[in-house]
Amino acid sequence: MTQSADSPISPATIEDEHRILRALLGRLEETTGLEELVPGLAELRSLLAVHFAREEAPDGLHRVVDASAPHLVATVVHLIEEHGECLTALDVLIEAGRRCLEGPVAEVRSGVSELCRRLHEHEAAETELLAGAVYEEVGGGD
User: Fold this and answer.
1) Tell me, what's the pLDDT at 65?
2) Do 31 and 37 meet the contact criterion of CB atoms below 8 Å apart?
3) 38 and 101 in contact (C-beta within 8 Å)?
4) Long-range Cβ pairs for the range 27-34 (8 Å, 24+)
5) With CB atoms counted within 10 Å of each terminal CB, which end of the chain scores lower, N or C?
6) What predicted TM-score, i.e. pTM, was given to this entire model?
7) Please, what is the Cα angle at 12 between 9 and 17, to 5 degrees?
8) CA distance 132 to 97
């Protein structure tokens, strides 16, 4: 999306932006890790803010619809109202994801690190024990 939010918008521009947004939405739907999901949601939020501002501008959706299909003005008004709702929902999801990454996910990661450290030490102790037992068995009768 290369135009600025204050540039006049055309149906072709809207469709190009929608294509970009659909691709990002597809990637988000396939993403399972919060480490990738939260930045992806933030990217979506940034793109949508510009896209919505352009659609809401005086020469945005109203201009396109008023000129060619005035009977659809009520639909435009409804869709524009949904813009704020979508941005708010994104803000909530981004914040919830960040809280998980900083809280429960960080706690699990810390627990995994501690468990891995303990298992490395445990395995090293077993290896040392086995090496000692084999050494004593082989050289123990001298």
Assistant:
1) 85
2) yes
3) yes
4) 34/97, 34/100, 34/101, 34/105
5) C
6) 0.76
7) 75
8) 49
- Write out the two tokens for 80: 């524009």
Name the token pair of 59. Answer: 């020469």
Report in angstroms the alpha-carbon separations of 12 from 8, 9, 46.
11, 8, 21
User: In the structure encoding, which two tokens stand for residue 73, read together?
Assistant: 């003005």
Q: pLDDT tens digits, residue range 50-102? A: 999 999 998 888 888 888 888 999 999 999 999 999 999 999 999 999 999 99
The tally of CA atoms less than 13 A away on the side-chain side of residue 104 is 5
d(CA 31, CA 13): 27
Q: Please give the pLDDT value at position 139.
A: 63
